[in-house]
Amino acid sequence: MEQNSRRIIRNILATAAALALWQAAAMLLDQKILLASPIEVAIKLFKLPSEGGFVSSVLFSLGRILGGFALGVLLGTLLAALAARYSLLETLFKPYMTTVKSVPVASFVVIALIWLSSSGLSVFISFLMVLPIVYTNILTGLKAADSRLAEAADVFKMSPLRRLIYIRLPALKSYVISSCSVSLGLAWKAGTAAEIIGIPEGSIGERLYQAKLYLATDELLAWTVVIVGCSFICEKLTVRLIKLIFREVERL
C-alpha cells in the first residue's frame, strides 16, 4: 500500500512539473497561436461539451476506432491460430504483416481514400494498425505454450475445449493483454490521424482540422486532451474486461 502511495505521489509531482514547464514555455513565447497555456487549454476543454456536436463527434470517432480495433483483434487472433497450426501459413502471412507494420500511416490513408469513403476510413486504418500487433503477440504466445503440457494432454486424451481452457489460454493471457493495450493506443493515434486527412463530417479529426485552419491552438490542444482521455479510458476498460474474462474462464 505504501509503495502504491509513493508511486501515485511521484506521478502527480511529475505531471505538475510537466504542466509548470508547459506554462513557463507559453509565458516565454507569449504567442497563443504558437502555444496556448495549460490554463487556456483547460478553460477551452471545459467549454467543449457545451458546444454543438461535441458528443456526436466523440461517439463518431469512438465507434469507428473501436470497430476497427475489434476487427483487428478478431482477425489477428484467427490468423495467429492458423499460423501456429500450419507453418506454411505463417510463412505466407509474414510479408503482409511486415508490410503493414513498415508502411507509414499516411500512405495507407491516401490509398484507402481511393477505395473507401472518408467516414469509414478510421475503421480501416485502425484495423490495419491493430492487426499485425495482435497477430505477432498471439502467435508468440501460442508458440510459447509448454510442449510438455500438450504431450500430457495427448496422453490423457483431453478434449479440444479443455486444452484451450487449461493449456492455451493461461499461456496467452499476458500476450493478449499486452497486444490489446499497445494496439488500442495506436488505433486511436492512427484513427484520428486518418480523420484529419480524410476529414469525415462529424468526427474528432474534422474538429482538429478546423481548429488548425482557424489557428485556434487552445481548441486544438483541448481536442488532443479529449483524444488522450478517450484512449486512456478505453485501454483501461479493455484490459480490465480481458482480465475479467480470463478470471471467469480459469474458474471453470
Tell me what you see in this structure.
Helices cover 85% and strands 0% of the residues. The protein folds into two domains: 1-30; 35-250, Orthogonal Bundle (MetI-like fold), CATH 1.10.3720. The chain has 252 residues and is mainly alpha-helical. The protein has ten helices and no strands. The protein starts with a helix and ends with a helix. The mean pLDDT is 86. Helix 5 crosses helix 8 (160-198), helix 6 (121-144) runs antiparallel to helix 8 (160-198) and helix 8 runs parallel beside helix 9. The chain has helices at 2-29, 38-47, 54-85, 87-102, 105-115, 121-144, 147-155, 160-198, 204-213, 217-250. The longest helix is centred in the C-terminal third of the chain and has 39 residues, at 160-198.
Indicate the topology.
Blueprint: H1 2-29, H2 38-47, H3 54-85, H4 87-102, H5 105-115, H6 121-144, H7 147-155, H8 160-198, H9 204-213, H10 217-250
Helix pairs in contact: 2-10, 3-4, 3-6, 3-8, 4-6, 5-6, 5-8, 6-8, 8-9, 8-10, 9-10
